[in-house]
Design a protein that fits this description.
Layout lengths: L18 H10 L7 H14 L3 E5 L2 H11 L5 E4 L6 H8 L3 E4 L22 E5 L10 H11 L2 E5 L7 E2 L2 E2 L6 E5 L12 E5 L2 H10 L21 H11 L2 H19 L5 E3 L13 E5 L7 H10 L16 H4 L10 H9 E4 L7 H15 L4
Parallel strand pairs: 2-3, 2-4, 4-5, 5-8
Antiparallel strand pairs: 1-9, 6-7, 8-9, 10-11, 11-12
The chain binds pyridoxal-5'-phosphate (PLP).
Pfam families: DegT_DnrJ_EryC1
GO molecular function: pyridoxal phosphate binding; transaminase activity
Keywords: Aminotransferase, Pyridoxal phosphate, Transferase
């Protein structure tokens, strides 16, 4: 294998199929501000994801920032250190103090058993992440939120199309936020969305993503410009035609990895949990002392062979300079997240990854473990 193998690769339908969408945009002369493509993608995603209302955004980070504003969240918010840094940044952009709580060692999501101890009179909300698309313990989180009258905003950036027994995972909490970044399961180059439970919150979010305008002359809030353009929405519509095949291929790759890596000493594939439909957005493995190489030595060895594995999530959000000084960032209070962050490696997974490439990655890992052949 001579070409580098990235950790993820965007789903790109045939270019010629995009041209009719472009022609439609050109002839309409509407490039943004809720044109036909935008409306059609919101409708199509509501149907595909089985949710009531979805507000499209220019990216997932602006959607997170706006979700917090829509619910008027202030003070302190309980969240996970084991996520992409945008989760924490959305709180800082709103002047909110993040309070990091440790994760569960199996799901790698916010540990509900540790939330209550972190609640103070300033706490107004919880922002959990469905990490790698594995659903949080939504029932336990809901019970705590109800008990303490807290809002729940799920960072569901990894959870496109994930379902539990009752339906879409995105129906839980007050709001859920998706990312459609190029590296995600479903992408619009850049993009994101907020799943809203009712028409009222959908309307408020629409105002907030358009400078706070409610009509030509009335501005009701200092909203951002978070709108998705017509060209991004059109690409989303095209991609929806291919998403089922892409998800099916991801599932096959996931199964192949688990078979190939089953008996490697010191390597554990993170199990799927609590989902009736998984999206296989990532393929994380955990490396411990029984493996012949350290996690970082394995990382270097694979990178040297052109396998662009990533350490998602290392460092923890709580270890970045703008978070490190917070009382809840102390490594001693986040032992599980610290440990997982030192051991995790995400392997390549994307729809056009071939079986031969998966087997090549597995062979290199098995050689590294001393368990070749
Ligand atoms: C990708 C991601 C985001 C940010 O989304 P963008 O669309 O890149 O702004 C937020 N949270 C998590 C967990 C992510 O993985």
């Amino acid at each position: 294998m001579s070409k580098p193998i990235p950790v993820t690769r965007p789903l790109l339908p045939p270019l010629e199929e995009f041209l009719p969408y472009l022609e439609q945009i050109w002839s309409s002369r509407i490039l943004t501000n809720g044109g036909d493509m935008h409306r059609a993608l919101e409708q199509a995603l509501c149907e595909y994801l089985d949710v009531e209302h979805i507000a499209l955004f220019a990216n997932g980070t602006l959607a997170l920032v706006t979700a917090l504003q829509a619910l008027r969240v202030t003070g302190e918010v309980i969240t996970t250190p084991y996520s992409f840094v945008a989760t924490g940044h959305s709180l800082l952009w709103n002047g909110i103090k993040p309070v990091f709580v440790d994760i569960d060692p199996h799901s790698l999501n916010l540990d509900p058993a540790k939330i209550e101890a972190a609640i103070t009179p300033q706490t107004t909300a919880i922002m959990p992440v469905h990490c790698y698309g594995n659903p949080c313990d939504v029932r336990a989180i809901e019970a705590i939120a109800d008990n303490y009258n807290l809002r729940v905003i799920y960072d569901a950036a990894h959870a496109f199309a994930v379902r539990d027994e009752g339906g879409s995972i995105l129906r839980h909490g007050d709001l859920s936020v998706l990312s459609f970044h190029a590296t995600k399961v479903f992408n619009t180059f850049e993009g994101g969305a907020i799943i809203c439970p009712d028409e009222k919150s959908y309307q408020r979010i629409n105002h907030l993503k358009n400078f706070g305008f409610v009509n030509e002359t009335t501005v009701v809030a200092p909203g951002v410009n978070g709108k998705m353009s017509e060209i991004n929405a059109a690409f989303g519509l095209l991609q929806l035609r291919y998403i089922d095949a892409a998800l099916a291929r991801r599932k096959d790759i996931d199964r192949l990895y688990r078979e190939c890596l089953e008996d490697v000493p010191g390597l554990r594939c993170v199990p799927l949990q609590g989902q009736s439909f998984a999206n296989h957005a990532y393929f994380p493995v955990l490396i411990d002392e029984a493996f012949a190489l350290s996690r970082d030595a394995l990382y270097e060895r694979l990178r040297a062979q052109g396998i662009m594995v990533r350490r998602y999530f290392y460092p923890l959000i709580s270890d970045f300079p703008m978070y490190r000084g917070l009382p809840s960032s102390s490594p001693a209070s986040l032992p599980v997240a610290q440990g997982i962050s030192q051991r995790v490696l995400c392997l390549p997974i994307y729809p056009d990854l071939t079986d031969a490439e998966v087997e090549f990655v597995c062979t290199l890992i098995r050689d590294g473990s001393g368990k070749g052949g």
